[in-house]
């Protein structure tokens, strides 16, 4: 069986709130993810300053999910082009 990584705790700040993230990934990885989320939230908050935190969080998740699906689609297209 594969080697089990030990979980570690990383404290991050997203949208001026602190969160403790427990992950098998290293702190550098967790910080990169938190930075991505924080930057996207900041970007959307600038466009919609009256959004409450819940709506901002959902809009952020939808935007990041959309970007992820676009990237997957691009990768699939590139793979088809290679075949």
From TrEMBL:
Pfam families: ZapA. Keywords: Cell cycle, Cell division, Cytoplasm, Septation. Activator of cell division through the inhibition of FtsZ GTPase activity, therefore promoting FtsZ assembly into bundles of protofilaments necessary for the formation of the division Z ring. It is recruited early at mid-cell but it is not essential for cell division. GO terms for cellular component: cell division site; cell septum; cytosol. It comes from the Bacteria. This is Cell division protein ZapA. Homodimer. Interacts with FtsZ. InterPro entries: Bac_CellDiv_Activator, Cell_div_ZapA-like, Cell_div_ZapA-like_sf. GO terms for biological process: division septum assembly; FtsZ-dependent cytokinesis; septin ring assembly. The keyword Transcription regulation does not apply. It is found in: Cytoplasm. It comes from Salipaludibacillus neizhouensis. PANTHER family: CELL DIVISION PROTEIN ZAPA (PTHR34981).
